[in-house]
Amino acid sequence: MAIYDVYGNAISADGGTSYDWSNKKIVFEGDSITANIGFHQYISNNLGATDVNISQPGFPVMGIYSGENKDFRHRISNIPFDADAIVIMGDINNHNSNQADAENWFTYDTAKWAGRVNTFIDSVKRSFPTVPVFLVSEYGMGNDGATTLIVSQFYECVAKRTGCIYVSTASESGFSLTYAYPLWGLNGTDKIHAKSDYVSLWAECVLNKIKTIKPPAFANTDSITMDSTKSVAVGSTATIDYTVSGNLSLQWTSSDYTVACVMGGVVYGIGEGTATITATTRNGHTAICTVTVTE
């Protein structure tokens, strides 16, 4: 079993060294596959880790819905600043359009699914540069094998580019995870969700990958400074310049997500008005920037 560093690079293969993740905080981001069938609980319980589930069933993780809780640009604000690891698995809801979008590997067009994935993952890594981020492809992200394959390849490509740790539940679990496989279905018509008795068949491969990563150690933050004001037009972006000494993980929040969203220091103008952007370090230091959004 390969041992990986925080950037996803294999550094050894010594037969399965296992690191201790007990009492560490693991954040799970996803949709109903993550939230509702025991996936995150199985992993956390087996590691003895603190489980933080910020998944929201019923819509894609990288969706472009409006509203405070459903805009993909806001979701990173739900990730606690003291996370020790982040596991992202979602977007089975987008399977009908994933294949065409995913073929454009490096787009940042947020009108397209692939662009939203790239933007979201880049922002997670920018906000949590020393935290291991696991990008997990769901077992059935398409109506057929071809779609599932292209999406899995896209996720793997994004993981390599951003330094995330990629996990393919379809290949690494050792099972043929297709819609026709009999372990799927919480009822007679459900062809998406695994039956709870079988969650371990594919959750185990994510669990095993986490154990190959050494939990990060964090230094105290001595200070944080950043731009005090920023202007941005509706539909455009602006980058807040900031400096942090010590630990680099930051949680970014906006006082009004109908005016401005923020991910990794990049502000998105949503609607005309003023919002306060706050950056919080792992040990509680904060800095603020007043953002004015114009038409």
CATH architecture of the largest domain: 3-Layer(aba) Sandwich
User: DSSP strand (E) fraction?
Assistant: 25-35%
If you average the pLDDT, what whole number results? 79
Structural class: alpha/beta
Radius of gyration: 19 Å
Question: What fold name goes in the CATH topology slot of the largest domain?
Answer: Rossmann fold
The CATH class of the largest domain, by name, is: Alpha Beta
Return residue spans where pLDDT drops below 50 for at least 5 consecutive residues: 3-7
Outline the structure in words.
This protein is α/β, with parallel strands linked by helices and 295 residues long. The protein has two domains: 3-211, 3-Layer(aba) Sandwich (Rossmann fold); 223-294, Immunoglobulin-like, CATH 2.60.40.1080. Helices cover 25% and strands 26% of the residues. It is built from eight helices and 16 strands. It has helices at residues 32-35, 39-47, 72-75, 95-102, 113-127, 145-162, 169-172, 199-211, and strands spanning 3-4, 10-12, 25-30, 50-53, 85-89, 133-137, 165-168, 223-226, 229-233, 237-239, 242-245, 250-254, 260-263, 266-269, 273-281, 286-294. Helix 2 (39-47) packs across helix 8 (199-211) and helix 4 packs across helix 6. The termini are far apart. Residues 3-7 have low confidence and may be disordered.
Give the tags.
Immunoglobulin-like; alpha/beta; 295 residues; 4-stranded mixed beta sheet; Rossmann fold; single chain
At a glance:
The protein contains 8 helices and 16 strands. It is an alpha/beta fold.
